[in-house]
Amino acid sequence: MKFKPKAIFLDMDGTILNHQNKVSIHIKEIIDELRSKGIFVFIATGRAVDEIEGVVPEGFQVDGLVTSNGMAGYVGKEVVFEHSLTCELVETIIEKARKNKVYYELFPYGTSRITLKQDKQYVEEEIRDPKPDSVGINEWRSRKQAIKEEIAWKDQIEGNKFSKFYFFARTKDHINEWKHELDQLKLEIDFTTSISSLHNVEVMVAHVNKATGIKEMLKRFDLLEDEIMAIGDSDNDLPMLRLVNYAVAMKNAPDHIKEIVDDVTEFTCDEDGVYHYLKSKFILCI
């Protein structure tokens, strides 16, 4: 590999995060080693910032976080940028989600994700056992954990700043019908949707994605797009992978992701693929 990046952006789910919903100690160690050699390392994830701490090893550090598919960016406790869904859009979408009985989580900034109490019965019904074969184990475990521990069940929406909506359905037909409903709503209200599996869709501010978030982070660090590489595995990574100078897909990524990148890891996310890739390309050759 001739290209030597000044910065690397890493996706989480399906990339540095394995199917046990954990980032291994080996990933932490390779990130520490790269940073010690002067290479910036960032996370670019669909997860909200408060979803990260529970899945990374103790002492895990990066130079910055691009979260919620580009809706927010952080360097330590510094807020580099934050976009927010409008209250009007939030209220409209919840009404439509209720009508369509679609599982949803609303992510306010600075507090727990919200689902309204009146929707609890059908939301819980969407994650009844057994797990559908086509639902990824990471996503299923995350939904189970959200229902049990992480969702704040509220009588009404609280707050006025929201990083994203997450929607899930146990069948592909159901989520595809919901995506169509959202596309129809886009004709009235401008917003962006993103998917990271066959069973979900997320809603963000119009024209926001991982690439726009990365651009804002690059300004903060005075870096250029042609100086960076990125590793990802799913559709919400496509804007990021198309932006960077050198794009890498995980071995476990679908073929349409692998077709647009410069390289593919030798190992999957469950085999510490990012660790082995970065070690072979940037440590052993130094």
UniProtKB/TrEMBL annotation:
InterPro entries: Cof, HAD-like_sf, HAD-SF_hydro_IIB, HAD_sf. Keywords: Coiled coil, Hydrolase. Its EC number is 3.-.-.-, 3.1.3.-. One of its GO terms (molecular function) is hydrolase activity. The keyword Nucleus does not apply. SUPFAM superfamilies: HAD-like. Gene3D superfamilies: 3.30.1240.10, HAD superfamily/HAD-like. Residues 168-195 form a coiled coil. PANTHER family: 5-AMINO-6-(5-PHOSPHO-D-RIBITYLAMINO)URACIL PHOSPHATASE YCSE (PTHR10000:SF55), PHOSPHOSERINE PHOSPHATASE (PTHR10000). This is HAD family hydrolase. It comes from Halalkalibacter kiskunsagensis.
